[in-house]
Amino acid sequence: MSVYRVIDVIGTSASSWEAAAAEAISTAGGSLHDLRVAEVTKQDVVVGETGELLYRTRIQLSFKYKPE
Description:
It comes from Cellulomonas humilata. This is Flavin-binding protein dodecin. By secondary structure, the protein is an alpha+beta fold. Helices cover 19% and strands 51% of the residues. It contains one helix and three strands; from the N terminus they run E-H-E-E. 12% of the residues are buried. The model has no long low-confidence stretch (mean pLDDT 94).
């Protein structure tokens, strides 16, 4: 039997929501092990002062829980 933990992470990208999600998963994967499922829960765009766009993707990321 396995137990999984779910956390929210937000990735950002200047190119797309998909790239923002990939960045969030990649960065979280550096410190979390046994990643299982990532579910997109929200997407938005921040418009900078000069009109540049920053795509943000919030995901719920699950990973296998290992008690200490």
